[in-house]
Amino acid sequence: MRTIRYREIAEDLRRRVAEGELGAGRVLPSEAELSATYEVSRVTIRKALELLRQDGLVDSRQGFGWFVAVDPVSQSLGRLGTIESQLAESGAAPVRKILDFGFVGAPSEVADVLGPGQVLRVRRVNLADGAPFARVTVWCPERLGAQLSRADVERASFYDLIGVPLGGATQTIGAGAASDADAAVLHVPVGSPVLVCDRVTRDAEGTPVLVSEHVFPAHLTEFVVDLPHVAGSISPTGIRLVD
């Protein structure tokens, strides 16, 4: 008896995942694209994908479509750490890929924190096991970044490079939608859900020394904070209304 077509498609997709063509967390082609590739209806494609979902191989989320299932990386909010250290702790191999490196006039929102003048702006993508995990842009005052090279910031964290003792950081996390540029870098659909983290890092004396923006596809990471004390409300702490 001939194998039912949707099962054939499911097995072919399973093979593509096993061979690494479709890696963990990777967004699959749309149902319409898969329908055209396999020359079947979208109903057949959906049945194949549901079969793989039952096996825990793929999953779907509003705004993303279908993607290869992956356990999100848990990032602790209780300490000042780097993406690389969080990925390494999760068992993934972290790599930085520099997209842009250069000195620019500080944008107004950065100048409000670091002061006016030139800043080193570095835009990069962080990879986890070879797949895009985050797009990061860092702004550093010229006095701290003048001696840094593109190779420096590709091999090491700003925390290790700027040469000042660090005191802490303030991080704001909100929901966003992937821009055209970020979608291309992160390999996700335009407009798909992302987590946007804006961070201001201070030196030991409390002076801001770095401003950074981190954009994560929402299905790849989660942020965890320990709440050691019970207050009068069970609502999450740190919530504020956005204008």
UniProtKB/TrEMBL annotation:
GO terms for biological process: negative regulation of DNA-templated transcription. GO terms for molecular function: DNA binding; DNA-binding transcription factor activity. Keywords: DNA-binding, Transcription, Transcription regulation. InterPro entries: Bact_HTH_transcr_reg (IPR050679), Chorismate_lyase_/UTRA_dom_sf (IPR028978), Tscrpt_reg_HTH_GntR (IPR000524), UTRA (IPR011663), WH-like_DNA-bd_sf (IPR036388), WH_DNA-bd_sf (IPR036390). It comes from the Bacteria. SUPFAM superfamilies: Chorismate lyase-like (SSF64288), Winged helix' DNA-binding domain (SSF46785). Gene3D superfamilies: Chorismate lyase-like (3.40.1410.10), Winged helix-like DNA-binding domain superfamily/Winged helix DNA-binding domain (1.10.10.10). Residues 3-71 form the HTH gntR-type domain. The keyword Amino-acid biosynthesis does not apply. This is UTRA domain-containing protein.
